[in-house]
Structures are given as C-alpha cells and as structure tokens.
Amino acid sequence: MTAHQTSPATRQTNQGNFLDTPQLAPGITRFWLIRHALVEQNARLRLYGALDVPLCPDSLIAQRPMYEALAARLPREAHWVVSPLSRTRRTAEAIQEAGYGSVPLTVEPALIEQNLGEWHNMPHQDLSQHLRLAPHPFWSVSATECPPGGESMMDVCGRVGAALDRLADAYDGQNIVAVSHGGAIRGALAHALRIHPETALHFSIQNLSLTILERLDEGWRVVTVNELPGI
C-alpha cells in the first residue's frame, strides 16, 4: 500500500467516498485554490497576464469581509503556496491579516498566470487584429492560440497539472492553500476532470473565489468551484 492509499476498511467507512456532509474528512490531499484579489483599475484596461501588477487598494478595504470569511473557511493546518507575482502574495497576506494568522508562503512558479508574451500590456480592444483563431467566449484567446513569445492555455494546463501532481506527492494527506490566478485554476480543473483546456475555460473563476480539489486513490475530485466567501 502506497503512502496515500486508504485501507479497504477506510473505503467502507467512506461509503464510496461520497460527500454527504459539509464537513470534509481529514487525511485527504486537498487543494484550496484561491484567485488573487482585484488588480488596480488601470491594469485592467490592458492584457496583464503574467505581468506583475498591483492590487486595487480600494478593493482591499471594501472587501475586508471576504478576507475574513476566507480566513475562517480555510483549514488551520495547511501549507501555503503563492505564484511568483506580488498580487498573489499580497492576497495571501490580506487573508492571514484578516484573522487566519501568519504562516510562511512558498513560491510555486508553475502556478503563475498565462504568459501572453508580446501581447502583454496591449489594450484589450487591439487584441483581435493579432489573433489567428477566434477568441474563447470567456477568455481573451482560444485554448490553442499561442501568443508570440508566450504560451497557450494548453501549455498552462500542462504545467499546472504537473505541479498539482508534484505538490500532492510532497504534501500527501495534507491541505495545500494555493493563491493563484484564474487561468491557472482553470488549468487545475482541466487536470482534475481530464477535460480539454477549451472546455475548462467555460469555468468562471472570480477574484477571491475558492476552488477545492482533492486527490484520492480513485482520482481527482472537485469539491467546489468559484465559491465566493461570505456570499
């Protein structure tokens, strides 16, 4: 039996691993994925992708109840990871300051947002003339479109999926709180559900929303997607 396998007796107790109560069972490898807070207004006028842009200072104040709700919702025993971009670190710090308490933050490069290459900092209205493929209805580009010098959503899903497997092995049976990005969280869902990245782009991942994934012996399970704290 490997380290993350459960015994037949445990499986019987789990009754097929059904989730019949709001209480999540301990001892399961569980990811608590949070999209960073709203970025500064001027940055939102352009394609910021993997650029390091600041958070909106007004939203940090106005959305304080959401940070408090996240602080209360997240598990007390957890490993925290953030992407290399400051907006994820600042979001994580705001959650901890809102009542969770200070814990170390580990940078995980593979959880960064899609690299838009030469399209970074381009006004949204100028993008269409550069596309080879029709954009996705719910994303700036299709999943297979690769910006010059950047990466496609197919690439994002590949690196995020590999990171999830690696982190799940490293923190087997434990909680991992990961403050990341909309594209990366869609990539995590594509990996968990084994769906095409184009399909995963149909998920809405709002700022400060919570998505919970579990890795069990039987495979990945999606517990919740785009859960808005305090709402």
Automatic annotation (TrEMBL):
Q: Where is the composition biased (Polar residues)?
A: 1-20
Supply the SMART domains for this chain: PGAM
Question: Could you tell me which residues belong to the region Disordered?
Answer: 1-21
Q: Which InterPro entries match?
A: His_Pase_superF_clade-1 (IPR013078), His_PPase_superfam (IPR029033), PGM_Phosphatase (IPR050275)
Provide any one GO MF term from the record.
phosphatase activity
SUPFAM superfamilies assigned to the protein according to its UniProt record, in alphabetical order: Phosphoglycerate mutase-like
- Pfam families, A to Z: His_Phos_1
GO annotation, cellular component aspect? cytoplasm
Protein name (database record):
Alpha-ribazole-5'-phosphate phosphatase
Q: From which organism does this entry originate?
A: Acetobacter orleanensis
Source gene? bluF
